[in-house]
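Work package 3, deliverable 3.1, input record:
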Amino acid sequence: MIWRVEIKDKAGVFDAAGGSVAKDIQDLGIASVHKVCVEQVFLIEGQITVSQIERICRELLVDPVTQDFSFLPKPTPEDDTAQGLRTVEIAYNPGVMDPVEGSTLKGIADLGIVNVRSVRTAKKYLLYGCPSDKEISIIVNRVLSNKLIQHVVDHSQAVKTFTPLKEKQEVHVAHVDVLGASDKKLLEISAKGQLFLNINEMRAIKKHFKKLGRNPTDCELETIAQTWSEHCNHKTFRGDITYTMVQGRKKKTTRIRSLLKSTIMKATKEINAPWCVSVFHDNSGIVKFDQDSHVCFKVETHNHPSALEPFGGANTGIGGVIRDCLGTGLGAKPIANTDVFCFAPWDVPFDKLPEGALHPLRVMKGVVSGVRDYGNKMGIPTVNGTVVFHKDFIGNPLVYCGTVGIMPKNKVKKQARKGDLIVAFGGRTGRDGIHGATFSSGELTEDSEVVSSGAVQIGHPIQEKKVLDVLLQARDRDLYNAITDCGAGGFSSAVGEMGQQLGCRVYLEKAPTKYQGLNYEEIWISESQERMVVAVPKNKIDQLLKLFEDENVEAVVLGEFTGTKRLELFYKGVQVCNLDMDFLHDGVPRIAKKAVWAMPKIQEPVLAATEQMTETLKNVLSHPNICSKENIVRRYDHEVQGASVIKPFVGLKCDGPSDASVLRPKYDSVKGIAIANGINPRYGLIDPYWMAMSCIDEAVRQIICVGGSLDQIAILDNFCWGNPDKPDRLGSLVRAAQGCYDAAVGFRAPFISGKDSLYNEYAYQGKTISIPGTVLISALGIVKNVEKAVTMDFKQEGDLVYVIGKTFPELGGSAYYDSLGKLGVTVPKVHVKTAVKICAAVERAIAKGFVRSCHDCSDGGLAVALAEMAFAGGKGAEIFLSKVPASASQGRNDIVLFSESNSRFIVEVSQNKQKEFERLFQGLPCGLIGRVAPEESLVIHGLNGKICVQSDLRSLKQAWQRTLRW
Amino acid sequence: MAKKVRAIILRTAGTNCDQETAFAFRDSGADVELVHVNYLFQKVKRLDDYHILAIAGGFSYGDDISAGRILANELRLKLGQDIARFIKDGKLIIGICNGFQVLVKAGILPGSQGPDLKREEFVQQATLTTNDSGKFEDRWTYLKVSGRCAWTTGMEGIVYFPVAHGEGKFVCQNKRILRGIQDNDQVVFRYCAQDGRKTDYPGNPNGSCDEIAGITDATGHILGLMPHPERHFLFTQHPFWTRLAKKSRYGDGARVFQNGVTYIKKHC
């Protein structure tokens, strides 16, 4: 039987959840609901008595201090309709991960009650007021649920049981007829199976199987599609590109064989840094940290899933990149996460929203919650990140998740050996995430939410935490020879990759499944989360399985590595796949694409010169890309593990934006790491080359700001672009990659890993919205002594304030222009030789202890940086723009204040260090622009000597903090 | 006098402040073992072998149902007698953040009041519920130290620790229990403003009654608190240490762990 338990807050208890739902409803413009209460529903199935259900309630489900409960011996509630009250009950769709179910089952068993078969949960919303049916439907779809994972419970449908009936499945191997298929038919097969393979690839498959004289099984075809997908294979970056650059009337065409090898990897090869341990090879890039340990870093994207189900998409995005770290070498311990998001503005009116797309505010809230949930529960501090807004992220938000790990230096090499057992462990396999890899290799459309709903999942961070805890113990006891995580493509790519050199045999029925009824193909390609695979020598298998059992982590032997170089899959004794590993991994035809980049036809706006810039500065401080992100960052635990040295927010009141985060991974050592990110899609709208250069400059100078060193900065590239089959999109991608090469070589900062997510376009009603091509550069620097680290807040009255680096008239793409609705064309450039000299000098000044505070000038330019330093430190400043090293400022204050020229730092130096400090900057652009002031106001004298900015710090801070409040 | 102070830090699914807590005890001179609760349930390890029991922060079992509930039940139902004996022996217990939630929900804190410890039936009398802000927040809080507690001996005035939780609002079952805690000197930490005055959100980050951030039991041996002393163990963990002169390697939180270890050395 099924018991229904309803739990509600006692009268007088403050219902924060209900209040927040009520606010969301009001934000939709629906005024007919004046109050919302949320109740928790548990449906408990099993042979249990009244006294048992009462005990379950009292001792497990209900907090006796704050909650009341009631129960009924049936799944449906009593009719509680009343005038002025509507109730809506929301539950997860069958098969969607609900961690509470498992925990509740465990909690009931702990009470000694054993006859419970299953638990389901639901949330009951009591909406007070008189909303219309149409309003209810809007509330349900926009606030209470996402139909991809949840549904409204229909109480008129009687549910007798949640336990699925046992089904006896005959194994039936399906073959797909490619041998007899025409080109047209081949494409149909690809489309129908959501394989996302093009005609050349389908032909290659046909040719291969023609040689074998048989058709592929459905499972074989799927395996090939997964392995060859853009997501797993990065065909565009490895393919042939004919690239044409158009400048005015001039056209220049070049052929690029592998964009990856000719830009990103080439830079790393040329720099040839001795501290690079493993690059572009493993799940993340590895660099040296100290005598005993290495650190690794990887940044992933999870854009497509986050567009459809923001919470689950971001949640599983974090989960995936953490597993990348666990699967690096023989396993690294995650010590920090970074998160960078791009959204459309959160105040877009609903009628401007493309059909099928979720509202950006909802996307933002969901993504932030997803990151919060997974990162916090895993106990990994989220230490750095940013949020960027642009209207063209409306259909495709970007969600970049990064993880840094630390590992003993003798745990880098891994190699499965012939005869090793394939052991899968962690979460169970379900139908979730089927076709995730191929799905992210295509564009989203208004129908995506229907067609691709299987690709959406919710994570289970505690499962992954258990995996992490037990895995590091197994690693330290040398219980396995190789490891990888199950990411896109699930077992198919994890086992396929590990067995690439050896070949393997897998018995799919051994995989523990979440529920019955999965067929062999689903088990093989399912992307259920929190699963990993290790190669275990036979003589260590008992020890490994015992350890996993002790920590309640399920582990099973799936098969073994054979040495036959074939991928052989069996299901209940029947062979369902027998593929040649060489064909699988090397058989994909090279892709040839065309790319064109032409300078966009845009112009510099003509603005009237104004003298008074105080209000302008406040507007720029309130710009969504510049404003305080504290509302988001505080939701993340950024201090767990106790390693933080420079936190995301610093200064007198812990509310100033720090440049890079600094961590001390070993409590007993002063050696540390600094983590920073550079991103600016607006620059890319003008010229992706300078966008890439600027992002690298920004990431590097943030590392320098906090006390890092040019001696060791590793960077990651992460390209999110539109459809690369369209020459203009690919052209801008090529140009960005070239910028990456030039800047990396210039700064001698090698790429150690990277990622690309293409096809970020949204098609609806015959229109297409492409995201602005966006590169994220993430940097990892080594800090020699964290106790010498520097923060950005002004510290001492009377100290000298310097600007290092030259200010050019470069307002193109600036936040200042954007706040006026302009783009401009004078995008900031990087003079990389000078930039390196400047960074080196700042590094020396910090190392010598001359620098009391240091902040980089980026979005919003000099004015924003000065304001931030002042209000973070609670100290004013008096500044003279005429002292700023500038070129061709045309006498305009706005250029000097808001230009976003690269390679600039603002530095606070105590008066008695002036000479020594200035000596370090001989021959470099360095201006003494003013002093830290005794009173709490920022005064800036314009180029003509007259005051152009004058404000108390409180109102500047308010301007900066007022934007992002929800 | 104990020669070697042995501390056990419990670990289970979702425990995640165990490493820094272990470092804090180790640096303070204790021998520290991180032990999965299964090994205690299986009797592979015995609570009797230790002097200090620490329940670290984290999200035990995902905080599913409510924060700390499932681990609280496990301890109460599977280790209740061992814990009662541990308390009776005058040993020390500390629960930080999730550990505090566990101690309160298991009924170990505030515990029976008055000196009669034989009625050591664990009954929940208070709770830690959803923050008034409705969200998880990581922020630094000023705390006024008071009460009689072995863990805070010699600590005076105001300390600065971070909180990081979504369910930290301390509420008592009724006024009698609250008054008992107050009258009995069981309130150990109260959220306050920088100058020690009474404070609202965000100074009181969760809306706790009487600004209560941490309490002890009638013996003063058991400390539960939402803020994280182990995250201000070192000077460089202070959120604006770059503005301060370094006086010591340690931060405000170190005293808590040092006190625990010193107490055992003296008394056990």
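The radius of gyration of chain B is 17 Å.
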